[in-house]
Specification:
Layout (H helix, E strand, L loop, with lengths): L2 H14 L2 H27 L9 H23 L3
Helix pairs in contact: 2-3
Length: 80
Amino acid sequence: MNNTDILDQARKSWDQLSTENKVAVGVAAAVEVGLVLTAWHKIYHLPARRIRGKKWVWSAVTTLFGGLGSIIFLAKGVKR
């Protein structure tokens, strides 16, 4: 199976989704992007003393685990 076949299959799968499901996928993607951007913003702008652990570790966690890593960082990584 080459790349063109994979893209065609993905396109057909997307076309078969209902409008409601397409909206749900779009909302979920927007929420995940928002979480990751918020986490990255806080990691970059907060002083190191306000973050539990190393900034580079949290950057890696939020990059590798996306929305889930961002939720963990925002819940546990920022000192209140």
